[in-house]
Fold this protein.
Amino acid sequence: MESRREEAKTNALAIEREINSLRYDHLDKNASLFTTRYYYHEFWQHAKEVSEMFKTRKLLKEDRERLWSTYSSLCEEVKRKQEEERHESRRNREILESLITDAYFQADGARDKEDLDKAKSMQTENLRRMKESRLFREDREALWKYWKEVNQKIFWKRHELQESNFLQAREEANRALNVANYGDPYEALQEIKEVQRSLRGVYMSRDQRHEIYDTLSDAWNRATSRIVEIKEEKRRKRDEWLQRQEERKRKYEEWRERMESNIERWENNIEKAEEYISRLEEQIDRLEEEEANARTDEYAERVRGWIEEKQAKIEEVREQIREWEEKIYSVRGKLKDY
């Protein structure tokens, strides 16, 4: 009998040690001095083990009641703290989602690089807030996913702005090149200077800007070359007729090469545009799946908005493809006529 009582006392001491371990070993050491926080997953795993000890170990009635009361009070206290922190996490998530949404709309309405840089800066600040905010794992993961989606939006908006500016600048540069080739070369030089002035501060990638400047350089060289030719032509009156014939032939060959180059470029543009459409369609597929799995109607509506944006972009690109196809058809007809 005495042996059983000693065993029960030994069991009581073991359970008491585990309860003390449960109370102190799972505290969050990073919490402030005036805040008690736990690593809840580890705490409840350990709490389950302590509960099993009550079931499997013999105890004196008074020890069981005392220890169970201590254990239960501790679990209730931790459960209450966990719920408080979960509520705090949800509140922080709502605030951060709102801030990330602000960055989304800043990017969506961006008209220039400064607008996009502001959206990016907002996202950087949002990331800092996410790191510093108290968040449960599911809230942090949801915020991280949304943050990455908005970053992707900023990336594509930046690409769209650069591409739009590039296409407009390329059209102006090609027009100057056309004047340099076929129009008044003195007027071409003025147009080239105007295009160069208009490019200052325009948002484009380095490669896009180099391509425009290469075209302008070609136009400048062509215009200055033609000016030299005109001056020389005045000094070669004797050979005017023959020189005029050779000039026509040379221009025709240049024109033909340029038209063939244009066709090749437009065909490449069409291929790239179709690849771009394919990427957008893949993104739409993923967004439609995300919409179907959305946990809230609000988020599903937001995803639907993204889908509609990408569908509108697809239609815009397809319209550009039709324009290129018309140009190809037109140019090929001209080449055939010659």
Remarks:
- The radius of gyration is 36 Å.
